Amino acid sequence: MTDASVRPEDWHAHPFDDDKLREECGVFGVVGAGEAAPLVALGLHALQHRGQEAGGIVVHDPQAGFNSVRRFGYVRDTFTSQDVMDRLPGGVGIGHVRYSTTGSKGQTAIRDVQPFFGEFAMGGAAVAHNGNITNADALRKDLIGRGSIFQSSSDSECIIHLMARSMGPNIPERMKDALRRVEGAFSIVAMTRTKLIGCRDPLGVRPLVLGRIGDGYALASETCALDIIGAEFLREIEPGEMVVITEAGEIASHRPFEQRRPRFCIFEHVYFSRPDSILGGRSVYETREAIGKELAKEAPVEADLVCPVPDSGTPAAIGYSLQSGIPYGMGIIRNQYVGRTFIEPTEQIRNMGVRLKLNVNRALIRGKRVVLVDDSVVRGTTSRKIKEMILDAGAEEVHFRIASPPTAWPCFYGVDTPQREKLLAATMSADEMREHLGVDSLKFITLDGLYRAVGEARGRDPNAPQYCDACFSGAYPVAPSDQIAKGFEVAAE
Amino acid sequence: MTDASVRPEDWHAHPFDDDKLREECGVFGVVGAGEAAPLVALGLHALQHRGQEAGGIVVHDPQAGFNSVRRFGYVRDTFTSQDVMDRLPGGVGIGHVRYSTTGSKGQTAIRDVQPFFGEFAMGGAAVAHNGNITNADALRKDLIGRGSIFQSSSDSECIIHLMARSMGPNIPERMKDALRRVEGAFSIVAMTRTKLIGCRDPLGVRPLVLGRIGDGYALASETCALDIIGAEFLREIEPGEMVVITEAGEIASHRPFEQRRPRFCIFEHVYFSRPDSILGGRSVYETREAIGKELAKEAPVEADLVCPVPDSGTPAAIGYSLQSGIPYGMGIIRNQYVGRTFIEPTEQIRNMGVRLKLNVNRALIRGKRVVLVDDSVVRGTTSRKIKEMILDAGAEEVHFRIASPPTAWPCFYGVDTPQREKLLAATMSADEMREHLGVDSLKFITLDGLYRAVGEARGRDPNAPQYCDACFSGAYPVAPSDQIAKGFEVAAE
Amino acid sequence: MTDASVRPEDWHAHPFDDDKLREECGVFGVVGAGEAAPLVALGLHALQHRGQEAGGIVVHDPQAGFNSVRRFGYVRDTFTSQDVMDRLPGGVGIGHVRYSTTGSKGQTAIRDVQPFFGEFAMGGAAVAHNGNITNADALRKDLIGRGSIFQSSSDSECIIHLMARSMGPNIPERMKDALRRVEGAFSIVAMTRTKLIGCRDPLGVRPLVLGRIGDGYALASETCALDIIGAEFLREIEPGEMVVITEAGEIASHRPFEQRRPRFCIFEHVYFSRPDSILGGRSVYETREAIGKELAKEAPVEADLVCPVPDSGTPAAIGYSLQSGIPYGMGIIRNQYVGRTFIEPTEQIRNMGVRLKLNVNRALIRGKRVVLVDDSVVRGTTSRKIKEMILDAGAEEVHFRIASPPTAWPCFYGVDTPQREKLLAATMSADEMREHLGVDSLKFITLDGLYRAVGEARGRDPNAPQYCDACFSGAYPVAPSDQIAKGFEVAAE
Amino acid sequence: MTDASVRPEDWHAHPFDDDKLREECGVFGVVGAGEAAPLVALGLHALQHRGQEAGGIVVHDPQAGFNSVRRFGYVRDTFTSQDVMDRLPGGVGIGHVRYSTTGSKGQTAIRDVQPFFGEFAMGGAAVAHNGNITNADALRKDLIGRGSIFQSSSDSECIIHLMARSMGPNIPERMKDALRRVEGAFSIVAMTRTKLIGCRDPLGVRPLVLGRIGDGYALASETCALDIIGAEFLREIEPGEMVVITEAGEIASHRPFEQRRPRFCIFEHVYFSRPDSILGGRSVYETREAIGKELAKEAPVEADLVCPVPDSGTPAAIGYSLQSGIPYGMGIIRNQYVGRTFIEPTEQIRNMGVRLKLNVNRALIRGKRVVLVDDSVVRGTTSRKIKEMILDAGAEEVHFRIASPPTAWPCFYGVDTPQREKLLAATMSADEMREHLGVDSLKFITLDGLYRAVGEARGRDPNAPQYCDACFSGAYPVAPSDQIAKGFEVAAE
């Protein structure tokens, strides 16, 4: 059922730039550090890049019980007021930001906004999920057949229903039961009345980190969310690990799953994570600079200016400039008053597209041979427009350098990707792409180059890839069974 | 869990007059008469007196599937716009208006607003319920223990979960299964993708009527909701009957329950139903006029003016005047811009109480002996204030005549009543009440007198009462088992 | 200029019944009685029947200066919250409710909502005006030519500009200067930093009363607004009088205008004023009952039931019943959840018209000869629909009795009337009207009968009418000069 | 008077970073290029950095007349919907974005939002003003004394009142009359029913440019607003010039003022203007890069990393890096989901201050000697916090390099500056500032260095400065007479 009642009338945001892959979620939780809600709100604000459409917070207080607020819009607009904080008392809390999948039936309803909550015989539990359950359709069908009533269209809701039906004696045990039936990628932050729980799937596809704040602990998708609340980054939750943290500050580590070789998402390094977050002991910014350097080695060109496509191409462009010696300059300026959405734009304004966000620094570009560095090419629509803007401004030559290999396969592990046929690299060769974009040259970093930049000195191990790189290689570490049932053809790993 | 997110910030209505019993719900449904949503909205508007806090509509369309809108506030403000109607396409639809129970933990969340919806293996179903399930706590506990996740704090949600777990082959059969496990009072309007369903509990405590509109049918709590859409009143759904109506206009009548002697709520005649509705073949207005006449016979008084407490006391006052020959006059004027609520009033305004709603027609009252006719006395707080207003205006004498017997017991069948100790008649004798209110005389109609006025020429049959009159007599036709488990002591029937 | 920015998006109210004359304004002010704003809000709530579209309050506090809040919607929804009261500190305050003229260019903008405010060299002043300035167009043109900038489309704004340009030494003197240039009808409540001012035009067309509350004073359009705040009604402000009241409770009475014979609006008795207000020493309710009696004498009929068109026809119907001996009954029931507006109704709902508001009490009407008593016939559209509803319900005969003479002329003194050609009585004889409405008989009270009912024992003095009755007689006591300039033809008085 | 009614309840934005000077306005207008409103909205979006609090658009259409919409919030949220565009028909239009002065009486009311509009005898005119009128208090007092009624607290409103009182035969002539009485800085875009007017004060303190779009013309504060609508940049409006542009595309240039030597605001180069705008024939980005290079020459230091304070310090940091050879790196990451405001933040969140916006890239900073390049130091509060973040992250040394001279004097020409005593440089020597900030070194570019960077090869001419640099030098080219009347002491020029 579509519940059209609770979406605010004035909130029909339009993603003005749909030519990016989108991380669908960020999760955060805290316990033992005083009032939870303001810390969760700050954490979610720092994770806003992982989901801009809506957010939710659940807290528990011994007197007031469980309380939640779920809202469309940015955290800074929806979760910062005293009024909202007053409704969210308690010392245990979790939160979630989400970006809805586009192209589906319609818009997210407030019912789809996590965390999901269930009241069990032994008390309530709330669950926030980053990732995607690849057998959700099958699980949902089975659960409905047995009398469960789903409230949302979200795959993540399966988890709470599986927990409700588990015979486990307590909530962590019920969560183990539930997650053992789930396939796909998940980094979960959950809570009971007194405990904070974190869990990553056996492959560890999505990130999840642990930090200490005062006498308490926080769990977050990225370290930048620990920084904002002044928490100390302790370690990553390990692939296949579940931690259960009490209000008193005791952490128990469980291993509910059979052990597997990890396959962390390599695209987190390329684009999803914030440049100031730390992944694998190095800042994402440095990794992206290293990608730029690697790219300069693999795909040099004679030029006058290295110019990033802002903001995501910036670190790689700096790296390319450092390696090549070609001066770095901001030939494209981003309007800082554009978020990722426009509210109900007119047709005319929608058609402005990238001009709403970017403007060329004409005086700087004119007469120059320009190396444009971008993080990825998805549909190629934005790349074409940027090329035109650059040429209109009088550039002599335009050379695209892309900080990732061609994106040729959809992601089924929690990233919003277009259907395969919409991916430029799925239907064109590198040369066709260059011609399609109309640029003087177009080079992608190689898969091996990317592995080297993220620290794998010998590149990708083709027999046992160190990362999940399915979007580049088609090598899906977990078979996307719902998709296969619908006819999707996976390339052999 | 309390979901504080979806209640509109500016909607903290305050019931400015809590000295009335409140019907908690009105239900409406339509099939086979063209677009359902506008008809449902009109029907709910006509039933607004049965629930002012919130309303909801669910419709189904073969293309658009199930859609719902649920809103706080009056139907005329929330369901009349083209924008809302556009979100609710389809030819089958049901709706619900509700008044939340006061005194409970807090305010209704949008999650508590009916109709409730469940997606089953054979398709979705929506259910709107008027009444109260007296074993809801026990059912909920059992369902949670078996893995159902409740989304609201409403007793009515049990029905949809029981249906979800039924093994019945279709939705009407599942509803029978569910309702056989439910105790209490229910008049239900439900829908599947193509069918409209109506059902009344075996005692028929709450009303439910069937009407014809064009080639289709409508179900409604009262006939006034048929009038507004131009539907012809066919008959009442009988106690213990379930009707299943197809889009093609076929009606099947089922009898899922063991047959019992009906016990319709006698207070529907006194106060809940609208005066222009027809109950038992007679307009409620005429019945109330008859109550006034009966009261004039039972409790005559010498006086100069018969004056109603507007608006609910008006028909009985007219009856009293006709019978007694004392002139009828509007000594109290109601401000027509008061609904049943004020939006977020200040303390000072809240304290104005009844003055916000009523003003005395001083010139008319001065120097007169006044018979004040009201429908009932609940807490007595309003009665005292009205008496003071009348005396301040210079009345010589004030005689209260009440169109119902003393309200001494709470209702557990879908009416919001204060706890027993708050009911004036539960703690005081008639004489103590008169003294407490400070009036020259105070008379209630007798239970037998009331039965005569509603058409039972020989009054109440004490061995087999023809109506549910538990609020007056304490004779509960269905044992309120949840309440008994919490310690409530029922008088022996 | 039309300022489309400040009208709330969701406030496009539709007057669901435009077949009534509408008072356009109510005014209220208070000084010396503690915090002014809550008292003004209550007073405006009691005057809501005089203007439902929007309201405004201005207060002054020595520290906080002048503050104002202006809002669309009912007072009970817009001025009752602590939040709004907190923005309105101070011991002097005035307020205004307004009903916009229909059929004009469009909707009221918030800029048109009074009180109007001006900052003068000697301090600020705010003015709230009930009535209409008949030379406003000419004044506006002159003021613009001399450099005044108008902020609204309201005729009342002229007053504050004339005050701004006066050379008077203080605000009351400037107001006298201004009002001597103004033609038409005005009952004004105004304020300076420390004083409350009330003034009526020389004819006293619109009402204005003075009350005492504690050590302070209140001014209001009607006495019902004094009742709600517990103020004692002292006297009417006299036609042509200006009172200036200080915070210390001193009242000075001025006579700024040449004296004329008063011409109070007789329609205030018929319809505009609330039945519990006192006009000329008698309650409006009693006057209306007297009109009904007079009508029963003038236009008797054999019938079984006297039935009011609710709510405005009720007192006259009671009077008709008392005089004629025909039983009184509520054959038409008003839905109490209809105010005077619907929010953005769909076409279909708009077409429901009177059915949204009224329903026939079929059981009561069936087979009866019914006398329907209404206050007036304007366009006749509603009357026709009511007649149809009554006949559909099975009435044998329908006799319309109207508590005012035929309305044949527009009002230019602060009442929203349709153009002359839309008034049924302007284009049809009494018999044509009867035929047009399709009723068995149609009788209006005579002008003399109406004068008798309001207390003029010898009826109307044709040489010096005691009231303004221009809407019935076409005898305009003030020449409507702007209208005449536009071609309106006045009947000779 | 403070009008508290029309500010949206939920719009109490908090400027989370008040340690910057703020341009107070951006203006835009278009004629002859089709529907004006969408172009004005786009232009204002591109100028959003010049005013984030509120915006307004006025248009004129022969049928619909003048229409306006004024709103709080970002253009992208308030002026992009079809609904708003539909209310703004017409081919001539102007718009304004504003940032309110902080520390003043309170928050902007919607009445203060420009454009201002006046209806004159010859038709209406709307005016949007960037700059500040330094004799506004005196003008207002005089106008009030003569009967003008002000609607806002804005200095700019004087212009429209002076125009209303002018005896000039048409609107451009009236504007000349008005502006000749005005002292201070103004770049004005105005409109009549058919004409677009642009005007700059004789010193040309604020920017204003002319562009061609199709057969029509646009006026804008900066060229970036021409770029977004695809207009071609023609030229700057000259200091002291007024242009009047007809719908037919005829441009007339007037010189209403005595000619003076221009004094363009040098801070527009440093901070206010967008880096992709063109000032004096060069992109602002290049000028800022040149400032960085100049700074590297004037204030070299041995270090490992040049790091900008994002985003405004970025181009100067790139210049410093290029000149010095020290590698450039993004040691501080800006959260792109922070605009310049937070909605109603809690105390706790407000106290987070800069951490809401900036996070240190710890891995990059650790162990390095860092040159931090910022555009200016105002109060120094942010600079201290950034220094602390950098040291916490493990930097060895912190060297601040500032791309402007010490800001020691308030601006009275349309920039929001703190009172003089709040300016760090007004009360401390360079060395005291270094100590106060706690950094290893602190160097500002010299005034001569800044002049060289903006293209004055021989630096500042002390006898006839080429720019307005009052904020650095205290040399005010127009005496701020209102301020002097209040006691402000100007340094001798």
Automatic annotation (TrEMBL), chains A, B, C, D:
Active site residues per record: 25
Required cofactor(s): Mg(2+); [4Fe-4S] cluster
The UniProt record lists the keyword 4Fe-4S: yes
Listed EC numbers: 2.4.2.14
Top-level EC class: transferase
PROSITE patterns to which the protein is assigned, alphabetical: GATASE_TYPE_2
Positions annotated to bind [4Fe-4S] cluster: 265, 411, 468, 471
Pathway(s) served: Purine metabolism; IMP biosynthesis via de novo pathway; N(1)-(5-phospho-D-ribosyl)glycinamide from 5-phospho-alpha-D-ribose 1-diphosphate: step 1/2
Catalytic activity reported: 5-phospho-beta-D-ribosylamine + L-glutamate + diphosphate = 5-phospho-alpha-D-ribose 1-diphosphate + L-glutamine + H2O
All copies of domain Glutamine amidotransferase type-2, residue ranges: 25-248
Binding site for Mg(2+): 312, 374-375
Gene Ontology annotations of biological process type: 'de novo' IMP biosynthetic process; purine nucleobase biosynthetic process
One Pfam family cited in the UniProt record for this chain: GATase_6
Protein family membership: In the C-terminal section; belongs to the purine/pyrimidine phosphoribosyltransferase family.
HAMAP family, per the entry: PurF
Annotated PANTHER family: AMIDOPHOSPHORIBOSYLTRANSFERASE
Role played: Catalyzes the formation of phosphoribosylamine from phosphoribosylpyrophosphate (PRPP) and glutamine.
Record protein name field: Amidophosphoribosyltransferase
Species for this entry: Jannaschia aquimarina
